[in-house]
Design brief:
This is Uu.00g017130.m01.CDS01. It is built from 11 helices and 9 strands. With 313 residues, the chain is an alpha/beta fold. An 8-stranded mixed barrel has the order 1-3-2-9-8-7-6-5, surrounded by 5 helices. β6, α5 and β7 form a beta-alpha-beta unit.
Length: 313
């Protein structure tokens, strides 16, 4: 069984409703065709932080509305009713093994290809924005987790490729290892444009995987940042940077990871104040960094943070 995951731009959706109008070195590469030119967001358009909608239940629509108001412009969800209310926002494709057998977006009796098609079409319907189903599209769809069999993973990926570029401009995969990504990328017609993994010390902060992503222009999205890095959020460089700029430790950690590892952060708080604090705090840090007089302090603080990370790599 499988699950699909999608990323949608709230800014695009909101506009429709209201206006009608660095890790460079790596020894391996993904030998596959790039996604169609113009289909992948530019560096300026790609979000640096995404709002995650897991475990929000019936409050998903309220949380997403509040997140939009707070300044979030990209949202992550999945066609997995047990953990997400995609019908209240947007999606991922989840294999059957991770689904609730009593509440699935497709029949487990279908082939993998049929399951993927049914899941994507269900997501397109759930996430349409005042448009008919045939005009709906998603910014990206991710395979929520690879199958135990690489052949089955590739079969699911082939089915996803059918939706590129018109209905789904970009494809990605979540919860994947270096070997799995390399294998998929070398055999896929449309190579992954997004990798979404839990970023934590236990896996060495996915150093080699992030290098592979950087080498192939694939965005690495980090989830579970706060829950999986309690030691890191309390380390001296994070706390000193937070004090220097005047933001909380979570924002400090988000920004340091964004800048030193080149990752996009998934944040999923349900508290309105913390939503605004994340967006406002990141804007404050970016403004601080643009001031040339802070260059020396930034070099020292970011260097100290990198030293902390290297102990786990």
């Amino acid at each position: 069984m499988f699950m699909l995951h999608s990323i949608n731009s709230a800014l695009r959706s909101l506009s429709r409703q209201t206006h009608e109008e660095p890790c460079p070195e790596s020894s391996a590469s993904i030998e596959g065709e790039s996604q169609p030119q113009g289909s992948r967001p530019s560096a300026e358009e790609a979000p640096s932080i995404i709002y995650g909608t897991a475990w929000k239940g019936e409050h998903t629509d309220r949380c997403v509305t509040q997140a939009v108001t707070a300044g979030f412009r990209a949202f992550d969800t999945a066609a997995q009713p047990a953990h997400y209310r995609e019908d209240l926002i947007q999606t991922k494709y989840t294999p059957p093994a991770s689904q609730d057998p009593e509440n699935m977006p497709y029949s487990p009796d279908m082939t993998i290809t049929e399951q993927v098609r049914a899941s994507v079409l269900s997501s397109l319907h759930n996430l349409r924005v005042g448009t008919p189903d045939e005009a709906a599209y998603l910014d990206a769809v991710l395979l929520h987790t690879p199958f135990p069999s690489r052949e089955h993973t590739l079969e699911a990926w082939r089915a996803l490729e059918e939706f590129v570029p018109h209905r789904v401009p970009s494809l990605g995969v979540s919860n994947i290892s270096y070997g799995q990504l390399e294998h998929l990328g070398q055999r896929a017609r449309i190579k992954p444009g997004i990798v979404q993994n839990r970023l934590r010390a236990k896996t060495g902060y996915d150093k080699e995987l992030r290098q592979l992503c950087a080498l192939n222009g694939c965005q690495y999205q980090a989830y579970g940042v706060l829950g999986s890095n309690r030691d890191l959020i309390a380390c001296r460089p994070v706390l000193e940077f937070a004090a220097e700029v005047g933001v909380d430790a979570a924002v400090s950690l988000f920004f340091l990871l964004q800048q030193t590892l080149g990752v996009c952060i998934l944040a999923g708080t349900a508290q309105t104040e913390r939503m605004g604090g994340s967006i406002g705090g990141l804007a404050r840090v970016e403004s601080w960094l643009r001031d040339k007089k802070n260059a020396h302090a930034w070099d020292a603080l970011s260097g100290g943070f990198i030293s902390e990370l290297q102990g786990y790599m």
